[in-house]
Predict the 3D structure of the following.
Amino acid sequence: MEAMDVDGSGAICMDLDSYISQYTGNCRLQRLKYYVDFSQAKSQNYRLLIQTALECKNMIMYTDAVEALNNTCPSEGMAVNVEWITQTSKYLLNKVDRLEQDIKGYQVTQDKENIRRAYQTLGDHYHDCGDLSNALKFYQKSRDYGSTVTHTLEFLLNYIKVNVYHQQWRSVKIHMEKAEHIDETDPKLVRRIMLAKGLTEMSQENYERAARTFLDIPCDTWNDEIVSPLSLLIYTTLCALASFKRSDLQKLVIESNNFRQYLDMQPTIRNCILAFFNRRYNVGLNTLDLLKREFRLDLFLSPRLDALYSLIRSKSMKQYFAPYLYCDMVRMAGAFNTTVGELEVELMELVGGQGVIIDSYNRTLVAVETCPKGEVKRNVLELCDTLKFKTQELIVRTAILKAGLVVSSDVLASDEKPSTSQVKIGSNV
């Protein structure tokens, strides 16, 4: 779990081996490839990616990684191992042929359960090889032979897993909602559903709902998941800081017995949350800035990282000013590690026209005081207008009744237009 540490200069260092060891199979390769594409130590990391692809027998990733290494670092390039590709291709083809022969035999005996398992094994095989299109194809076939609710849930989770790597969040959401309606008690399957739900909410910028979903995931034994405990901690922290009220941050995050187990694994992130809660925004923002480079290397977090950081900073500024009628912009600039000029530009976009005056000459923020007496007066006038309208309605209704204009109840019950004979007209009309 200790994949990040702080060096002597204050920079955050990620132990790549520890980070990657939290994942297995194609999930490890996908995350490692994304990390390598955006990291600085290209040669060393590409060699690690090549070695991992060899171990996972993923020929597609292997050839792509060798080509990328040769293009990026020609002096340290390497040749493609043609012999390994030939042997691996033969091994994988034999495995597929064996499974297809098993399926034909099961189809003769009408053994639906073994057919389902064989198709699922084929889907897993193509998934591990990086052929996600064929993986979806065989997962879909396994669904046709499912006979229990658990079989349906396994299919949905496999389908979700592949679409998560494709980042097809609309498809993930559709299948995730179907999985949620299945009554399942297996904690491993329930956790996978919740992880998919949280990732979907985060991808759609529903950060509060994403944080609440992640917070409900128990901190127990993890195995072969698309998200590691460390990644879950990072996602939850950023989504909570960007969307939670201060009271919710204390109740749902800091005082949560379940989430405290995640926080204890990473003291740096725990101290960052406490800094924001205790209004030490400069400390919290500095910590996030140090972590940002490593966060950028996360497959699912990177596309939303800038938006989350912007929301956290804006929210912190509002919380800083909220208790006061007057605020010194010089001190506020110091609290947010910026200059007064830059702070003024940020505040114009953040609180312009929202009951706050920016006094550039005196370098202060001034909250526009509301007048309780004027508010009460407006409410009374609105109430008077409402009562006047209702009184006029009653007067008109009374006049109609006095005039004797009455429509019989049997006409009201029918859809026909009442005739003149069915309407009683009084003598004073």
In short: Residues 58 and 129 are 5 Å apart (CA to CA). The chain has a mean pLDDT of 83.
